[in-house]
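Sat 14:20. Reprocessing the chain from the morning session after the first attempt stalled halfway. Input below, unchanged.
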Amino acid sequence: MILADKIINERKRNGWSQEELAEQLNVSRQSISKWEGAQAIPDIQKIIKMAEIFGVSTDYLLKDEIEPADTRSDMIEEDSGTSEEYVKVSMEEAYEYLDLEQRLAPRLANMVSMCILAPAVLILCIALSQIPGFPLTDKVMVAIGLVAMMVMITIAVMFFVIDSMKKSRFAYLENSPIETMYGVSGMVKERRALFEQKKISMTAIGVILCVVSVIPLVAFSVVGTKEYVVVLMVVLLLAFVAVGVNLLVRAYTVDGSYQKLLQEGDYTIRAKSLNTKYASLSTVFWLFATGAYLAWSFIGGHWEYTWVLWPVAAGIFVCGKLILSGKN
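Finished this time. Tokens:
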């Protein structure tokens, strides 16, 4: 295998575009293109630098008779032993994808908040029915709360499906290794830099709201008051959480779009391979969690407490993902 082919293989194995490799070597993208096309040969200093960033020996790069020995765990291969095909992303596609994610991020955040607030409506109805002299009976208020909750969840799921269909043609960004065309990487990094301060602010406010959400509930529980007041504090807690999560979803949905195009964070080539491998397991886990939540809520009737299952399930999911990632 000649030097040009080895440069191509190593660059793709690391998930870099020609522009990104050029930045690390302090050369132009055109130089990388010429090297990979066997139209020019890099000087010895550039070869030494490439060996360092690729994690290979200079002998491997310079001697045609030495073939690649793929011992790295992040090399994506099919069962047949052939590497996955890289999908090229043009500047037009990148702009279109980023604009779509930014446009849909607020609606996604609102629908997530609606799902959080859905049980809060039922809890609120239960609390109101316990107020002395309230005109409607417990059963009527529970029925109203259940109907309102199901309507809210239905609307949220409907928009989840609609938006998912709109983004389906960009699914390869999550599942396949990509190679961005000239200029795409720089454009994405520039947009991410402009968004960074906004992301930090939204994250900080979102986390603070989630943390302080428990203060009213704890305060009224410790002081000791009527039961319906404590239940109303649970509703307030969920309202704070809904707003906080809304900000977090907006921030990390947009930031995630940048990570997908740059193949960073949860979207490196290795992470994509793991996501594909454990996709069915994740689906089963969340279906089980949903079933457990509904069973506990309807059978036990304690909607003011059953929401705790979701943060617990999220913690278990994250820990499981980290454990499985460490084993691969």
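The chain has three domains: 3-72, 88-269, 278-328.
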